[in-house]
Amino acid sequence: MNEMVGLGQVTWRRACEGPTFVALKAQRSRTVWVLMAIALTSHLGLSILCGFFRALMGTKVLGPLNLGYTLILADYVVVWTLGVYYLNRSATTFDVLASTSIKESGVSSSESSNVTGASL
Fold this sequence. Notes:
- This protein has 5 helices and 2 strands.
- With 120 residues, it is mostly helical.
- It has a two-stranded antiparallel sheet.
- α1 packs across α4 and α2 runs antiparallel to α4.
- The radius of gyration is 22 Å and the shape is elongated.
- The termini are close together.
């Protein structure tokens, strides 16, 4: 089930050890960790505020809308913004590095698509 079609392990090792692929992994990892830290801080901060500062969360902000609901809506906005940022970063940076890495490794596009499709 986990066999590689059309490419040997030597080719994959060479492709994964290339400088562009290493840079891609490092940049993507850094980006994901930062975005995850922001999202978790937002979610956990909201949970802590709701749990320990109920009176503050009940403060009316605009008509029947209180601070708790406002922060929940803001949390959704934060998470969607992070998602859109990651999609944009992926399309402009990570996809370019991935294409460059494939070209540097000498893997043809038909070989890489065969392997990608088979390994899913």
